[in-house]
UniProtKB/TrEMBL annotation:
Compartments, as annotated in UniProt: Membrane
Residue ranges crossing the lipid bilayer per the database entry: 39-64, 70-89, 136-159, 165-192, 244-270, 314-336, 365-386, 398-414, 453-473, 574-596
Annotated organism of origin: Heterocephalus glaber
Topological category with respect to the lipid bilayer: Multi-pass membrane protein
Gene Ontology annotations for the cellular component aspect, listed alphabetically: membrane
Keywords, sorted A to Z: Membrane, Transmembrane, Transmembrane helix
Family as reported in the entry's similarity comment: Belongs to the pecanex family.
Keyword Membrane (UniProt): yes
Protein name: Pecanex-like protein
Presence of the UniProt keyword NADP in the record: no
Pfam families found in the cross-reference section: Pecanex_C
Pecanex C-terminal domain span: 1012-1166
Highest taxon in the source lineage: Eukaryota
Length: 1174
């Protein structure tokens, strides 16, 4: 990457510099980029200062003692309401007027939207420019009323006497009054006049006009604290908070401009997540609906527990509801499907899927019922019968605390030894080394799997019951009807099941502090019950993990900018020096970002750090898995995901992926595939994940970062280390290797076929093999036709079949004139012996097959069929019905045509393998057909007949002997096979060229009369094309593995193609079907015009090893926050922009790809997938 890659292009810089002042001031467009009349600026200034003027009237009247403060607020609010309505209805009236607008010619495309020619200060064009108006009438009224409320309450909030009472300083009063009213004017202008584009952009489109509510919402919050202080007097904490917020109020424009404060929708979702997780013990949810429902139910649980009169009832209620709410009760069927994936068998199961599903669900249901009953019994018995004593080293609760500490240490050790690195730094000596194959890996991992099972039992069954015992023995539960007890213990009993590992850590810490801090006078023991202590420790634990992750991310960005030459820019040195000098300020930004649980935003991914606005864990507003940039490669991820989910089930249960937290990101790598895994939700024995597949067509940046990922995984899993505990060489990278997952998926091998497909000897043998494969395909097809009767039934009926022999000439009927597509001739207009193919995309002959309305050669008109059934048809008419061919014959000469007599099969059973009647004709001249019939492999024909499944019984062997001697049947096969042969290779019987083979393989056949004959028989056309492709694969296999020794080997090879292979084109729909049906092998032929070589692609379904590593969560969130800001606010969508270039430490390009569309472009994104860990 060149260091001179611009952060913003020149035309985007001008656009950005015009947009930024508009955002800071709340909507006034004072920098237009072109010359506008002065009244445009004057009108905007008047509209901007209007709330101050209206509020100033009420303020003066209050200061003069004419009105009380609340009347002052009402007066200012009423005036603002009237003004807002006038402004809005003026905009509506201006929209109804049609005015001719002249655009000013400009070179800057982005400036054209803003350039208008204004006729007067009150013209319709001027009004539309100044006041765009609202999309909905309801918002027109609602926003006007809201503007009145904001102005009225803001006037009350900024009364000079009130500010003086809070601070007792005249200078401070003047400062807060002036800048406070500027803040109010900014909020009012964005609400009622013109809404600016916010830097804190969450939604790609503001469909319901939520953005105008953002700034007034925060003004209401500040005012509400002041109102609470007015109502609840003599509260020092509330007074201090009010004083701080009055000062912070004047800095709101900067917080809005920097995008620190979230828009209303993001704020609402983020607040629900934070309360649900830290206040109620829940988890982030995979969908917005689940989050809302779970928040309501969890809040109701805490409220209900407050009113329960019995302590035992409270314990039972909290224990039971905590367990039930931690389960994934929404979609158990989906859990079943993915848990059964790893136990698939290729043969048919004796038990039906419905029975298996019922069995699994009953087992899961029974397990949960048993756990719930045991938990309720334990909690009630311990709480009722055990004595409650003060915390001491010998109390029963202290003993349980010791057990919890021991469990925590054991579980941490068992979890860390499952990964390749301990703490992400030291190589695990117990992890398998130098693993390249599945069998070797599974053999070496057996001991670790047993340790994982022990860990899962301790974590799922032992730890929750130990924590319930600790909580049930706490004496804080004796205090009923306490808000802190209800909230604290509702969360504690829920966390036991929802996130057992974190709950165990928090409980062990609280228990240790119980033993270390024995003084009752300390604030920790005096003012907090055990539930609130656990809540406080949980918040500190979460924020501490975030702080460490953010700090590591910031240091990585800083060091990469300095050390990586490709990331070095002219401003890099200056930025690094400033970061070192102002490191305390940078640290404050990181701390503030951590407290808000918001992403640390590196501007343009440079070491310029801002506090991003708080947003939900998923980072994006849309539903998971609803958008992806689908392409041909998507199907491979579609096949892989169910099996990968099953492999993740084992890895998560054993602890191989480390601590599972909502919002965690993992990266998987196999061959050219990159899998992005995100944890959305966490509960008891389950996780909900989203899997994304990144593009396989690698760009230069994608390739560079993929190579870095390969180096990281190779160093972790394939490299031998001399030391017992070696260090992680890539510790500074955002990716830390975790484990290897054995998954059954398609391995992709691409080979160069030059030297095989262009070998003259191979092409000569291709011709002979093609006839044999045609015989095999047609016999197999005819023997398995669904219309055929059972052999025994046919024998009893004793019917005979009337057969029409092929005519000697092939007159072409008028109905067949359109069966030849002129485009096919264009595809073959070059020399057919030219080695370089000229196949054009989208010109597949398969797509030109006619419908059922086309006249089929050999078919009989419906009226004649009716006559035939009544016995009135003449013999001459039946003969005329089968005449076909090319060219058309003069009607005057039709009487001279030679007719052929109807012939019967010599065997009564020949129709078991007979060709369809419409295939029994031929369009090849008799002389040519007789000449080429010698090529027909009669011995092979007899051998394939003997191998058919329908002739393997004793009774069928006699019928087989009769059929093999049926000359009429054989003649029809000769004519059909040779006609197909001519259609595929041409009637001249020349050795095909590589270009010819490639074109026919793609379905583009050379023109001939045989092609027209094939085209109107779609089923036969498909079989002939299938035979051609099988022959090509046979040629490649013979060149690679050696020739087939006898008919047995050839038949076995073709049967393998039939059962285990799909041979066709990657673009075929049947290729996708074969991948989803998990066909063992797939083959495709291609041509690389850049290299000038023929290529073969082979997909093989087998157990392969996927390498998985954990990504720095804050690095992903920070880069996604910058991506959102760049694309939605700065509109920096340049494909070569700096922030999308390859970065070996941040994996910047891959992270951008994995973002949700339209900002990112993954080619696959799954719906939320529950992973059961039982």
């Amino acid at each position: 990457m060149s260091p001179d890659v611009p952060l913003l292009n020149d035309y985007k810089q001008d656009f950005f510099l015009k947009r930024l002042p508009q955002t800071i001031l709340g909507g006034p467009r004072l920098k237009l980029g072109y010359c506008a009349p002065p009244y445009i600026y004057v009108n905007q200034i008047i509209l901007f200062l209007m709330p101050w003027v209206l509020g100033g009237i009420g303020t003066v009247l209050y200061q003069l003692g004419i009105l009380e403060d609340y009347y002052t607020a009402a007066l200012s609010g009423g005036l603002m309401l009237v003004a807002a309505l006038v402004i809005q209805f003026t905009s509506i009236k201006a929209k109804t007027k049609s005015v001719t607008v002249e655009r000013i010619l400009t070179r800057d495309i982005l400036a054209e939207e803003d350039e208008h020619e204004f006729t007067s200060c009150a013209s319709a064009e001027t009004v539309r420019f100044l006041i765009p108006g609202k999309k909905y009438i309801a918002n027109t009224v609602f926003h006007s009323v809201l503007a009145g409320l904001v102005c009225g309450l803001g006037t009350w909030y900024l009364l000079p006497s009130r500010i003086t009472w809070l601070y007792g300083c005249t200078g401070g009063t003047v400062t807060l009054f002036i800048f406070g009213w500027i803040t109010l004017c900014i909020g009012e202008y964005s609400l009622i006049v013109n809404t600016p584009t916010e830097t804190a952009a969450f939604q790609t489109q503001d469909t319901y006009e939520i953005t105008p509510l953002m700034r007034p919402l925060y003004i209401f919050f500040f005012v509400s604290v002041d109102l609470a202080h007015r109502l609840i007097k003599n509260t020092p904490a509330l007074q201090h908070m009010n004083q701080i917020l009055h000062i912070l109020f004047i800095f709101l424009p900067f917080l809005w401009a920097f995008g620190t404060l979230p828009p209303p929708d993001a704020l609402f979702l983020w607040a629900m997540e934070q309360v649900l997780e830290f206040g109620l013990g829940g988890s982030s949810m995979s969908t917005h609906l689940r989050l809302l429902v779970m928040f309501i139910i969890s809040t109701g649980t805490a409220v209900t527990s407050y009113f329960i009169p019995s302590t035992v009832g409270v314990v039972l209620f909290m224990t039971g509801l905590g367990f039930l709410l931690s389960l994934n009760l929404s979609d158990p069927n989906f859990v079943f499907k993915h848990s059964m994936t790893r136990n698939r068998v290729e043969t048919k199961a004796q038990t039906s899927p419905r029975a298996l599903e019922r069995q699994f669900l009953w087992k899961e249901f029974l397990l949960h019922v048993i756990v719930l009953v045991l938990a309720l019994l334990e909690a009630s018995l311990l709480h009722h019968f055990a004595g409650f004593s003060q915390i001491s080293k010998s109390s029963s609760q202290a003993v349980v605390g010791y057990i919890l500490m021991l469990l925590l240490i054991i579980l941490w050790i068992l979890r860390e030894i499952q990964s390749v690195f301990i703490l992400g730094i030291f190589r695990n000596p117990f992890y398998p080394k130098d693993v390249l194959t599945v069998t070797v890996f599974l053999g070496k991992q057996a001991k670790l799997l047993r340790a994982g099972i022990v860990r899962r039992i301790l974590l799922t069954l032992v730890s929750p019951f130990a924590m319930i015992a600790f909580l049930s023995l706490d004496n804080s539960l004796q205090r009923l009807h306490s808000v802190s007890v209800s909230i604290g213990f509702t969360r504690a009993f829920r966390m036991v099941w929802q996130n057992t590992e974190n709950a165990l850590l928090e409980t062990a810490i609280v228990s240790a502090l119980h033993l270390l801090i024995s003084s009752k006078d300390l604030w920790w023991n005096r003012n907090l019950n055990t539930g609130m202590r656990l809540l406080l420790v949980g918040i500190i634990r979460d924020r501490l993990i975030q702080f460490i992750s953010k700090l590591q991310f910031a240091i990585t960005v800083l060091l990469a900018s300095w050390k990586e030459k490709k990331q070095h820019r002219t401003t890099t040195t200056t930025l690094c020096i400033l970061n070192v000098i102002f490191f305390p300020f940078v640290l404050v930004i990181i701390v503030f970002s951590t407290l808000l649980s918001s992403p640390l935003l590196p501007l343009f991914t440079l070491p310029v750090f801002l506090v991003g606005f708080p947003r939900p864990t998923r980072s994006w507003p849309g539903a998971v898995g609803t958008a992806a940039c689908v392409c041909e490669d998507t199907i491979y991820y579609d096949q892989m995901v169910p099996r990968l989910t099953a492999a993740l089930q084992t890895a998560m249960a054993g602890g191989c992926l480390g601590l599972l937290l909502p919002g965690s990101h993992y990266l998987g790598r196999f061959q050219d595939r990159l899998i992005w895994i995100m944890i959305l939700e966490r509960g008891y024995t389950y996780c909900c994940i989203n899997i994304k597949g990144l593009e396989l067509q690698e760009t230069s940046c994608h390739t560079a970062e993929a190579r870095t990922v390969d180096e990281i995984f190779e160093g972790a899993f394939e490299q031998e280390y001399s030391k017992v505990c070696s260090l992680n060489e890539h510790f500074g990278n955002v990716l830390t290797p975790c484990t290897i997952l054995p998954v059954k998926l398609y391995s992709d091998a691409r080979n160069v076929l030059s030297g095989i497909i262009d070998s003259h000897e191979n092409l000569k043998s291709f011709k002979g093999d093609l006839i044999k494969v045609l015989v095999f395909i047609l016999l197999q097809y005819c023997s398995k036709r669904p219309s055929k009767q059972n052999f025994h039934k046919t024998e009893s009926k004793g019917e005979t079949s009337l057969i029409v022999l092929p005519p000697s000439s092939c007159p072409r009927s008028p109905e067949d004139t359109h069966s030849f597509n002129s485009q096919t001739f264009n595809d073959w207009s070059d020399d057919i012996f030219d080695d370089e193919p000229t196949v054009q995309k989208g010109k597949n002959r398969l797509n030109d097959l006619p419908g059922t309305t086309i006249h089929l050669p050999g078919s009989v008109d419906s009226q004649k069929i009716d006559n035939l059934s009544t016995g009135t048809i003449s013999e001459n008419s039946l003969y005329k019905a089968v005449m076909l061919g090319y060219p058309a014959i003069d009607k005057g000469k039709q009487g001279s045509m030679a007719y052929i007599s109807l012939t019967e099969f010599s065997s009564l059973h020949s129709h078991l393998v007979s060709l369809p009647e419409e295939w029994r004709s031929s369009c090849v001249p008799n002389s040519r057909m007789k000449e080429m019939s010698s090529l027909f492999p009669e011995e092979w024909y007899q051998f394939v007949l003997s191998q058919l499944e329908c002739f393997h019984s004793e009774m069928a062997s006699a019928a087989l002997e009769e059929i093999s001697k049926d000359k009429v049947l054989k003649d029809f096969y000769v004519h059909t096979v040779m006609t197909c042969y001519f259609g595929l290779l041409g009637i001249d019987n020349m050795v095909p060229t590589p270009g010819h083979i490639l074109r026919v393989y793609g379905g583009v056949l050379p023109w001939s009369s045989a092609l027209d004959w094939l085209t109107i028989k779609p089923e036969l056309f498909q079989l002939a094309l299938k035979a051609f492709r099988y022959t090509l694969k046979l040629m490649v296999d013979k060149a690679s593995l050696g020739p087939t020794e006898d008919f047995e080997a050839l038949n076995s090879c073709l049967e393998e193609y039939e059962s285990d292979w799909y041979i066709g084109l990657v673009s075929d729909e049947k290729w996708k079907e074969a991948v989803l049906q998990e066909k063992p092998c797939l083959f495709s032929l291609g041509y690389d015009p850049n290299m000038g070589v023929y290529t073969g692609r082979v997909l093989t379904l087998q157990e392969e090893l996927i390498q998985v590593g954990k990504l720095n969560t804050e690095a992903v969130r920070g880069q996604w926050a910058n991506l959102s800001w760049e694309l939605l606010y700065a509109t920096n969508d340049d494909e070569e922009r700096y922030s999308i270039q390859a970065h070996p430490l941040l994996l910047r390009n891959l992270t951008v790809q994995a973002a949700e569309p339209p900002l990112g472009y993954p080619i696959y994104s799954s719906e939320p997938l529950p992973v059961c860990q039982c």
